[in-house]
Amino acid sequence: MENMKTLALTGSEEKAEFSGSNAWLRNDGTDTVYAAKSAGISAGADGVVAVPAGQSAPVYGANETVYLLGTGSVQLIGSDYSTNPFKTSAQSGGSGADSVARAAISAHAGNTDIHVTAAEKTAWNDKADLSETLHNLTFWSEGDIKDKSLASASGFVFVGNEVTGMPFDNTYWFVSIEHTTNHCRITATDINNHRKTFNIVYNDMLNKWDEWINIADGGNAASVGTYTEAKLAALEARVAALEGR
């Protein structure tokens, strides 16, 4: 099962299967969509999540199956984590488009003549450039994760099993890239088999990458970053003292 899908709802209740414990949903249509872990959705009932147009919401504990009711296009990402993989809009209400724009998006998503099949995507990926944009995320099919020209901006990417420099080979990854003033931090979760999460930090002042750290072995993404920033602050103070600043 895939952990990322685009669904075209037609008004009847539909069952969607995915990979992961939690179902993250983004409503790209013009009307409210309802979701639940069990069939027989009724708006306003206990256990039913309402996802307004242009917004996103999770169904926790769906465990690879979620039921949907409504119309329009819905993006589904399966995840074992509680972090929202969709970007939050700067506009009020969480919607980045007005009703006219959302209607155009819904019409586009429902046009089956302009969307490619899985077989076509597989054939095109063999000839693809280093990366291609898919549903506001980026897929990397080759290269080295530690190449700074790849990890050049904050965001989320899916990483293929031929990308080098990962904690281990021959698997697929969901990766978060975070840039701050002095470093770049990459958090990678294995989505193929093991569901393990690792961190690695690039130190701009030292001009090198640290080693991959398995979060399960101690610490977390925030604590690893804080520890690295503390080391950077101490190093900056020593450099300033040597330069007489």
Describe the structure.
This protein has 245 residues and is of the alpha+beta class. It folds into two domains: 4-114, Jelly Rolls (Sandwich); 118-242, no CATH class. Helix content is 17%, strand content 33%. The chain has helices at residues 99-109, 118-125, 221-242, and strands spanning 4-10, 14-17, 22-27, 33-36, 49-51, 56-59, 65-69, 71-79, 131-134, 137-140, 155-159, 173-179, 183-190, 197-203, 208-209, 213-214. The strands form three sheets. Strands 9, 10, 11, 12, 13, 14, 15 and 16 form an eight-stranded mixed sheet that branches. Strand 12 (173-179) and strand 13 form a beta hairpin. The longest helix has 22 residues, at 221-242.
Number of strands: 16
Strand content: 25-35%
Order of helices and strands: EEEEEEEEHHEEEEEEEEH
How would you describe the shape? elongated
List keywords for this structure.
single chain; alpha+beta; 245 residues; 4-stranded antiparallel sheet; Jelly Rolls; 8-stranded mixed sheet
Question: Brief overview, please?
Answer:
It is built from three helices and 16 strands. The protein has 245 residues and is α+β, with helices and mostly antiparallel strands.
